[in-house]
Amino acid sequence: xxxxxxxxxxxxxxxxxxxxxxxxxxxxxxxxxxxxxxxxxxxxxxxxxxxxxxxxxxxxxxxxxxxxxxxxxxxxxxxxxxxxxxxxxxxxxxxxxxxxxxxxxxxxxxxxxxxxxxxxxxxxxxxxxxxxxxxxxxxxxxxxxxxxxxxxxxxxxxxxxxxxxxxxxxxxxxxxxxxxxxxxxxxxxxxxxxxxxxxxxxxxxxxxxxxxxxxxxxxxx
Length: 221
Hints:
40% of the residues lie in helices and 23% in strands. The protein is an alpha/beta fold. It folds into two domains: 3-66, no CATH class; 70-219, NAD(P)-binding Rossmann-like Domain (Rossmann fold, 3-Layer(aba) Sandwich), CATH 3.40.50. The strands form two sheets. A six-stranded parallel beta sheet has the order 7-6-5-8-9-10, with helices on both faces. A four-stranded antiparallel beta sheet has the order 2-1-4-3, with helices on both faces. Helix 3 (79-90) crosses helix 8 (201-219) and helix 4 (120-127) packs parallel to helix 5 (142-153). The radius of gyration is 19 Å and the shape is elongated. The two termini are 36 Å apart.
């Protein structure tokens, strides 16, 4: 591997960008394609983290997919978050929980994850929200959830979910619309959050959320 290829991979990793390295099997020549420049077939490989042989008129190439680690940002150190976290960790997500309420955001309740006791609008710009990040807002408190959702909508996160009833979601959408978001942007928010599987209780709701997030990651939308 030439130095420029290796440096491009390392730079992409540093900046949490997805790239694919094509190696021509007949010649060993290599080139890099960023996900932003991917065609439909290559984008599918990115979505499924799927390296493999690709055939073209020029011959066969091995395509090595280099995706940043998956990350899940949870707004709200609440009961449902406690159920989501072990599932997300099992699916290889790095989890960060953000909640300014010290009574909720305690290490005893959330061991083994990055826990930030601060307002989301102060944390998220430093943390960064990218195309390999899932985002869920769970507090039910507009003072906490709305600024976080505002930032998520301005980012490339692959999933945005917000906890609440249909009535809560409708009110939330009106507030965000008043902040300047159009219908296309607001359609990115999955709310009420989770696939409609008749979930009852925090563990089942967490399953529905993880299923919906996985669907967005792998299938898009």
